[in-house]
Amino acid sequence: MPRFALPLLIALSLAAPAAQAQEDVGPGLGAMLRGLDKINAQSSDLELATGETGLIGSLSVTLDDCRYPLDNPAGDAFAYLTIRDSRADDPSRPIFEGWMMASSPALNALDHFRYDIWVLNCVLPEGAMLPQDAPAEAEEPLPEAQGEEADRPVD
């Protein structure tokens, strides 16, 4: 029994950081995406509601889900996208299906010869910008400088 204790302890200690790395996320109402046509260098923004499909060039982009971190809603976005190319041999077959992260667009990117698409942010529900448990901050004026520092010019 003791010889199994050390491997078990090592396995549990390696699993602990993975559990701590997860963050609480909330569902967004939609997502803001940006597309780049690499041939003519034109970019365009596309706002999609969850379940909606839009076009960027010949690409049909469906937003299946968008999630954002509850502790920092403007800090990141995780969007599940299904992308099809109308000019492909089989236009019904997705050329991309998976999660894209706003903070790391290259982590799981669309591989297309002409277009790049990435997530900018989630469309947030009303009141999602402030954490519900955070106390309201009172705005206080900054103290005025006194003495020699007040007369010295600022660089």
From TrEMBL:
Keywords: Signal. Pfam families: DUF2155. Residues 1-21 form the signal peptide. Residues 131-155 are annotated as: Disordered. Residues 136-148 have a biased composition (Acidic residues). This is DUF2155 domain-containing protein.
